[in-house]
Amino acid sequence: VVRSILDSNTVNRPAANATAVSKTDLGRKISRGTFYISCWMTRAQIDAMKSQKVMFDDLR
């Protein structure tokens, strides 16, 4: 789905990584590459959210 959206909007994608990645390394990369930002958040709120796994836990 993401690939289709990017392609339909002519967004260039980097080439896929062909090397194997351990689960530990993958988890670390995901954690470091995830940002929790809401449009109405102050800088202090963003800094406070850095230690939380879930930003909106009441959405279902």
Encode the helix/strand succession as letters: HHH
Helix content range: 40-55%
Largest sheet entry: none
Q: What's the helix count?
A: 3
Strand residue content: under 5%
Task: Name the shape in a single word.
Answer: extended
Average predicted confidence as pLDDT: 80
The rounded distance between the terminal residues' Cα atoms is 21 Å
- Rg computed from alpha carbons, rounded to a whole number of angstroms: 16 Å
How many beta strands in the DSSP annotation? Answer: 0
Q: Which residue ranges are poorly predicted, with pLDDT under 50 across at least 5 consecutive positions?
A: none
Structural class by sheet pairing and helices: mainly alpha
Structure description:
By secondary structure, this protein is mainly α. The chain has a domain at 23-55. Helix content is 40%, strand content 0%. It has three helices and no strands. The mean pLDDT is 80.
